[in-house]
Write a structure and sequence with these properties.
The chain has 195 residues and is an alpha/beta fold. It has five helices and eight strands. Helix content is 42%, strand content 27%. The strands form two sheets. Strands 2-1-4-3 form a four-stranded mixed β-sheet. The chain has a four-stranded mixed β-sheet with strand order 5-6-8-7, covered by helices on one side. The chain is elongated.
Amino acid sequence: MSAEPRINDRIRVPEVRLVGPNGEQVGIVRVEDALRLAAEADLDLVEVAPMAKPPVAKLMDYGKFKYENAMKAREARKNQVNTVIKEIKLRPKIDPHDYGTKKGHVERFLSAGDKVKVTIMFRGREQSRPELGFRLLQRLAEDVQELGFVESAPKQDGRNMIMVLGPTKKKAEARAEGRRRREQSQSDQTATAEA
């Protein structure tokens, strides 16, 4: 069974509950009469509720109806926000400068509205000291707490320790703020160029 509704001659029931082109109730009529009314109005007879007793059919321009539904679906997909999980990998014995660089990446991802999965990789004897990794993850969470929150607490996963940070701002808000900032900087550049 296809998802497409049955139209015009494909409707194979003796009678339908007819709805007019402007949504007015016409009543229960024979299919032949409904098809004649559709032809007179230069519209299609579309079965909108096939499971009802009797089935409900509406007089409408089917091509326009399909087009409008496609546009609604496209608009809904456009407004849909995809959550992206970015990943940062650290080592327990990380240099302070490297830590600052990685923290900057985490801040950039969080301010863009993305989730961040922070992984600490243990090698060799480092595996016997998981508290080093735990402290490092706690420190990172405290350093970025104005941009994000700990979504899943640090937990050991084999040779790795994993923590997930979620952004405090939604992706759409972050995108809108970035757009405002770009427009502001462009207007500032044009103002300085004119001066």
